[in-house]
Amino acid sequence: MEIAYFDHNATTRVDDAVLEAMLPYFQQQFGNASSRHVYGINARHAIDHARKQVAEAVGVQPMQVIFTSGGSEANNLFIRGAADSLKPGNLYISAIEHPCILKPAQALSRRNCDAWVLHQLAMDAQGQVDLAAASAAMQAHKPGLVSVMLANNETGVIQDVAKIAEMARVHGAYVHTDAIQGLGKIAMDFQTLKVHAMTLSAHKIYGPKGAAALIVDKRLLLKPLIYGGGHENGLRSGTENVPAIVGFGVACELAALRLAESAQHVSRLRDHLEAGLLDMGAVIFGKQAARIPNTCYFALPDIEGDTLVVKLDKAGFAVAAGAACSSVNPGQSHVLAAMQVDPMLARCAVRVSLGSSNTVGEIENFLRTTQHIVTELKRISSLSF
Question: Which of 48, 30, 38 is nearest to 249 (CA)?
Fold first, then answer.
């Protein structure tokens, strides 16, 4: 049975062109980029080229790109690296951040000495930061570090990062955005967002797993998480994953080239999907807010999300009950909790995140299948009483 893949916010299939670019660096060009012979020089040139490709995707200079093993490492590098470079103060994050921001922020606040004070910015019902409340909080407690994601991985809701950054910069704070879900889906520019650091990842844009980057302002002071040979301007020691970095670079270049076409395609599919879901009585979270064009996070009241996900999987549709990172720790979405969604409705949440390979036919089949599953589940439920 062919599976329709509707989970692109979790990860994506490596693009053929990306894979082709990577392959030589597994065998023919296998050198260590720190070696001074021809194999090492070729590897170094490949990394330099990829660094330029990533930089161009978000409007920065190549020297501002620090390669890491993944988005989690890049986010930790900012939170912990910046905190270790500053005197402890107030650390602000949104209440809907990915765990790889939330957990290191919580760890900083639990230090026995030199602890940072953690503040979570409140969200409105549509999943956007309450800007008035954020401004008041920063006036009352001057921020030292701020991290707010650009687009949420569950709802797809886009934050006004530039406005939040303006508020924080008035107080001299360092500002970061986890922009992983925005890359390749909406236009992004580092300067326009007014941040000091930005996280990107390859495997959300048809690139390989194991490659990501922290984009940094040249004036940003960070201490490394990993010490060693001084790779990545001393901020991330360790032999570079050349194939993955090469793939990341190509994926960024392709994402920029295909942005308008891709956004139009998935937006059209999502509109069709959401029209059908609304006809079934679904609630769509964040629908009134600006969202990345591929994401629909919905609930069909009284139909438990985990149950629907399993039944859809058996019927040939790969969807998610929430964030992929939450699968090992199931429970109510902290994103929906921050949006003050009723817990009973939150239990019904299902995420569909579309990609370039999805079709109108898949959407129509999904809607028919979902309607059939819902009808059957309601029939079974009625028989149990």
Answer: 48
- Which pLDDT value is given to residue 330? 55
Query: Which is the catalytic residue, given 252, 296, 325, 348?
Result: 325
Q: CATH 3.90.1150.10 occupies which residues in the chain?
A: 4-12+259-379
d(Cα 88, Cα 76) in Å, to the nearest integer?
A: 16
| Entry pTM | 0.94
The parts of the chain modelled with pLDDT lower than 50 are: 326-328
Angle between helices 360-383 and 305-315 (to 10 degrees): 120
- The CATH H-level (homologous superfamily) assignment of domain 4-12+259-379 is Aspartate Aminotransferase, domain 1 (3.90.1150.10)
Q: What is the DSSP letter of 150?
A: S
In which residue are the tokens 């998610």 written? 320
- Pairwise CA distance, residues 237 & 143, whole Å: 30
Provide, rounded to the nearest whole percent, the portion of the chain with pLDDT above 90: 91
Q: How confident is the model at residue 114, as a pLDDT? A: 76
Q: Is 325 a catalytic residue?
A: yes
Which CATH class, in words, describes the domain spanning 16-254? alpha beta
